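In this supplementary section we document a worked example of the pipeline. Step one takes a protein sequence of length 229 as its only input; no multiple sequence alignment statistics are reported here. Step two produces a three-dimensional model, which step three serialises into structure tokens for compact storage. The input and output of this example are shown verbatim.
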Amino acid sequence: MLGNIVKHEIIFYIMGILLGFSIVAKMIAVVTIRKMVKAAGEIQKSNHKLMKLIKAKFEHASLISDKVHNVEAFVEKYMYEYRVFGIRLHTWRKIPQKIIWIIGCLGVFAVFESYRTEGLGILTIKYAQWTSLFVLLILLLHFMMEEKLGLHATKNYIVEHLENVCMHRYVKKNTVVEEVQEEVQEEAAPEEPEEESEDVQMAKQLEEEEQKKSEREMRIRAILEEFLA
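The serialised model returned by step three reads:
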């Protein structure tokens, strides 16, 4: 069966499909990263999905823990998880590199299989030529459209905005909120009753004793009146 696939040149079609898919993946990655760079450069007024997500998550993290200690790692996390058509951008970037290995393995297999069945003929030479051409095209595409610089620029724009604009804004906001809370707590705190002096306490005790004494005299007088009546 494998011999028939090689003989009928079906592997050429498979390698052509893989080449086309690698070109599509490369173009998706390149276009997406260019949009990200443009959006990151105008992050304050950008409606880009990734920029809005990072700003919202950064605000939430700042309100919870007062400060994000590693802003670069924070940004890299969401850039790595960013998806295009349901697939991570990181995966789109790696597809052409993986396809190079697949085409290379298919080409080597086809060359050896054609040589085994037909010897060093036109088919073997054709497989060697087209395999080399496909691999060379993908390599050229990879080196001519490198995305690392764009990703690096995007990260720098976002980190600079978060550190120099957002972080100071949220720190100031948290400080104002804490001051307001402290003022409210101070106003709501109940006032402790002032301690009475010793003279006042003694006067109150004498007053209470005199009141008790007068009450006893009134009871005795009432009993005597009833007895003598």
